[in-house]
Design a protein that fits this description.
Strand content: 5-15%
Low-confidence stretches: none
Number of strands: 5
Shape: globular
CATH topology: Rossmann fold
CATH superfamily: 5'-nuclease
Helix content: 40-55%
Mean pLDDT: 95
Strand order of the largest sheet: 3-2-1-4-5
């Protein structure tokens, strides 16, 4: 499958305030195909439960996000977890690291607004930021 994996923050902003997205990110989202990881769903649920993120009902958020972003859901698979071992310790956020690993394992570009994630750009991983 070809496509671009959306970082959680990019997906959240695309849904709530798309004008805040950098031009390259907005253009990539419109071009697609977009992939939304179940890891992002997990992150949103955890942050919503802690009161750090207000998305209303996180279950409804997931359905709406997949539909509005015209995204294909991506489950977390063992090969994604295995890819973590190849990542240098450049970024501490575990959700970001597994999204990076998923993008690498699947051959997806990673669409993000997090400039720190650019550090992972390589011949195996294209970052759209």
């Amino acid at each position: 499958m070809t496509g671009q994996l959306l970082d959680t923050n990019a997906a959240l902003i695309a849904l709530s305030d798309p004008d805040r997205l950098p031009g390259k990110v907005r253009k990539a989202l419109l071009a697609g195909p977009n992939i939304l990881s179940s890891v992002s769903y997990w992150e949103v649920v955890i942050k919503a439960m802690k009161g750090n993120l207000n998305v209303g009902d996180p279950r409804a958020w997931w359905s709406d996000a997949v539909e509005q972003l015209a995204a294909t859901p991506l489950p977390l698979r063992p090969e994604h977890v295995a890819e973590l071992s190849s990542l240098p310790p450049l970024h501490k956020d575990p959700f970001d690291r597994i999204l990076i690993a998923q993008a690498m394992a699947e051959g997806f570009a990673l669409v993000t607004i997090d400039s720190e994630m650019r550090l992972y750009a390589s011949p195996r991983l294209r970052i759209i930021c």
